[in-house]
Amino acid sequence: MKFLRLLVLLLVIPAYAQQGGMWIPSLLKGMNEKEMKSLGMKMSASDIYDVNHSSLKDAVPQFNGGCTSEVISPNGLLLTNHHCGYGEIQAHSTVEHDYLTDGFWAMTLEDELPNPDLEVTFIVKIEDVTTQVLNGTSTITDEEAKQKKIQENIANVTKNSPKESWQENRVRTFYEGNQYMLFVVESYTDVRLVGAPPSSIGKFGSDTDNWVWPRHTGDFSMFRIYADKNNRPAAYSKDNVPYKPKHYFPVSIGGIQEDDFTLVFGYPGRTTEYLPSVAVEQILSSLNPAKIEIRDEALKVTDSFMRRDPAIKIQYAAKYARIANYWKKWIGESQGLEKTNAVAAKKAYEKNFIEQANKTGKQNEYGNLFNEFEAKYNEIAPYALSRDYFLEVVLRNTELLTVGFRLYQLEQVYNMRGEQSFNDRKGNTLAALEGTYKDFNKNVDEKVFEKLIELYATKSPKQFLPAGLINADYKLLTKNIYGESKLTSYDGVKELLSGDAKEVMEKLNNDKGFQLVKAISDAFITNVNPKYEQINLEIEALQRTYMKGILELSPKDARIFPDANSTLRVTYGKVKGYSPRDAVYYEPVTYLDGVMEKYVPGDYEFDVPQKLIELYNKKDFGQYGENGKMPVCFIGTNHTTGGNSGSPAIDAKGNLIGLNFDRVWEGTMSDIYYDPSICRNIMVDMRYVLFIIDKYAGCTRLIDEMEIVNKRKK
Ligand code: ARG
Ligand code: ASP
After folding, report:
1. Which of 146, 247, 334, 603 could form an S-S bond across to 59 if both were Cys, CB 3.0 to 4.6 Å?
2. How many domains does the chain have?
3. Which atom of ligand 2 sits closest to the CA of residue 681?
């Protein structure tokens, strides 16, 4: 009997631990080095992360907060995804110079284009500060008071830990509040656009192929970091010079094979691998379907305008891609969770967890955990749904409402902090909104609004809505607002915001658009948000206890990785194909032949540039081809998530072999439930990147500044 239980334990508990995982670079030595070597790695943990010597981490900055990038030359040349540099490429584009459509290549240093709001951030060092952060908190039982004390401690650590004047200290939590780490970071803000392929390469397959294998996208763009004369961060200046990195990646063109070791190094944003089953059920039955339906409507409307009007196509390109991306992700995620029986697997794990707790005499601490989870998730259900409707409809998909909400916040600032704060904030708001309106089209937004406001009013929990929204005539409401509100143009907003605070308040409150936003926001802020926050805090406390339990009750050799939190992580695995369904096997590598198979002349998503077709026909692949074929993308068993885009894929010796940009459709649920048999990350082969730069764009100066290794003997 005992033996049987042990067996069950071994079968169930390692579900979290076996393969996958996003590991903390400073802890690799104890946790992972052995396994990495057994998978074929030829480096040591300190080659990857070291505080005293240069190491791979010095070549991997976070790109603009949301993506990853890597330095690939001694002159600060930076590689990331096309979809990560998309906003910048779009910002430099007009109908006349359309770099999204045609690509952009700076043929000299002088041609490289500055980007006012772009920054990249390097990690200088990582330190465990758990003791300092949790100091004096163990005796506090009230959750709110406990969190307050923790925040105070974090503020102290952040303020008092040593750093250079241009650096910044950041504290982040790991294992849901069971561990805290300090990051010393430095950010460079003069980062210039160097090159981007046309979208027909960099975004080949667009939304149809997004999250899908087999894939044929050359999803890369290039930037360069500039520094002052001392190689330190500096605001843009003509006098800045290319940054000299502590480390840069040599690029391997030796090729890859199935089962080769791979390491992906980057900034995964957020995962929730340790959610209880009841939370996953809620995502499946309520939250994902609601968000998917909202975006479905927004996308249909926007798409129809973009296909008709090239100016709108540029204006909405980045927004559309952003909205479509998670829309499709949630669809795949729900399907994957169903198909892998994630809820049942979690339930089995939970049953076992409780048995373990009882067996080890910890029933007081953990025995009631899942009942409490269930009660809290039931309680939060309507609030969570209502909140998602608010976020999706008001803050993410309807611009008039999003702008209106900013002005609503401005009013709050005035009411709470007075005229001076109001004036400061007003300046910032106006500056930010100028960019918003550059990419705003009233007709598009009006149609989106009409659809979404009806969804909001009819499908979100009614008890929390403002009265005026229930059973209204949504067509008429839309017509009135877009006919009369000043929120439909930047000039209109400037007019609303002119004059002193009192005048502004009066004008705002007479505006039909603002009135609606205010009614909706007031309702959200009084009826939904406080209760949501309160229950959520309680759920977080339960999750912290659960995590503690997982760490304590798992077998000693089970390695448990902390959920992603936008900090630097290492994930590793092998180049590997997979079987998505019965009788089908996916090879791990795609070739240019596949691009030509998908080619549809003139198509919105699958057109191929003439020059690329010519190179293909002549098999003119330079030193980058392999047996007369040009490799394009490959997949591996590295556990990645959003934020890993642009991450370097590194070989056993530390050379760059690929550029991470996506995951496969069957495995999009990996943020919640990682299944090693079908979860794969997708990378562009560096040989394809170099081929495009060299043979397609003729930008050979970039090739010349890289260190290219593993060339074939002539
Ligand atoms: N799915 C990838 C990631 O999450 C690539 C997204 C590119 N955007 C797109 N809509 N095609 O970011
Ligand atoms: N495409 C994602 C990103 O932008 C990566 C992923 O979700 O796999 O970070």
Report:
1. 247
2. 2
3. 8
Task: Give me the helices (H) in 118-258, please.
Answer: 130-134, 143-160, 199-202, 206-209
CATH of the domain at 585: 2.40.10.120
- What pLDDT score was predicted for residue 160? 98
Region 105-116: what's the mean pLDDT?
98
Question: For 555-565, what is each residue's pLDDT tens digit?
Answer: 988 889 999 99
Which residue among 485, 518, 548 closes a domain?
Answer: 548
Q: 339-373 pLDDT, tens per residue?
A: 999 999 999 999 999 999 999 999 999 999 999 99
Amino acid letter for position 82: H
Assess contact for 646 and 67: CB atoms under 8 A. Answer: yes
Q: Give the residue, by CA position, lying nearest to ligand 1 atom 3.
A: 662
Is 134 inside any structural domain? no
8 Å CB contact between 365 and 354: no
441 and 534 co-located in one domain:
yes
Q: Is 96 exposed, middle or buried (0-12, 13-18, 19+ CB in 10 A)?
A: exposed
Annotated catalytic, 645?
Answer: yes
Tokens of 329: 């992700």
Q: Tokens 């190689």 belong to which residue?
A: 231
Residue 219: active-site member: yes
Residue ranges around ligand 2 (CB below 6 Å): 67, 640-645, 661-663
491 and 570 in a single domain? The answer is no
Phi-psi group of 176: left, alpha or beta (phi > 0 → left; psi -120 to 50 → alpha; rest → beta): left
Q: Single out the catalytic residue among 82, 83, 216, 639.
A: 83
Q: Tell which of 548, 569, 603 closes a domain.
A: 548
How close is the Cα of 83 to the center of ligand 1, in Å? 7
pLDDT tens-digit map of 185-225? 999 999 999 999 999 999 999 999 999 999 999 999 999 99
Residues 264 and 236 in one domain: yes
pLDDT tens track for 8-17: 444 444 333 4
Looking at the fold, whether 257 and 293 belong to one and the same domain comes out as no
